[in-house]
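thought: fold this chain, then report.
action: predict
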Amino acid sequence: MTSADTPTLRQSLLAARSAISDSRRQMLSVQIKQHILDWLQGRHQDCRLPAHGAIGSVAGFWPIRGEPDLVSLLHDLHALDHEVSLPVIEQRDAPLHFYRWSPDAPMRAGAFNIPEPQMSTPATLPSLILVPTLGYTRDGHRLGYGKGYYDRTLHALMQQGHKAMSVGIGWDEGLIDTAYLPAAHDMPLDAIVTPGGWIIPQRPASNDA
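observation:
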């Protein structure tokens, strides 16, 4: 698939997502939430995932446009003493910053009218970033809305020497099962979670030894 085909693919994925009813979307969101909680609480045994004890600060997202709704997960993580944050667009076409969130945190309408914390709350460097994912491949490549915010953010964190685990959150309908060539600037995800479970990318082993 060439880059010229990407807008068509994006529209197809958006249509498939829009076809999910509100009631089914809520039910499937609970399944995604449970997969994440099972892992964080040591009930998901997969040696390819990092130890759940290594995850402290978690960056979530506020759902828009039919995305999985994990707001109740944010409440649960806060109750489990994880530091929870949400992304803030401080500047258009720049990396995101993450600001601390709690159930009683004051919110404001940010860029694209997405609710976000007030920037008076402390900024954080999350160890786990939950990334809203429109489409994804089994080798961990993500297709979003085309704005590039998460790619820029993950790249900027890497340049700072901060390695955050990036986990895509999407629907089973988001699987791209045709040939797909990611853009040169795309940052691959460490894992993807859908209602069907975890997808752990299989990548060639590094030659660095």
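thought: worth noting. Residues 205-209 have pLDDT under 50 and may be disordered.
final: tokens above.
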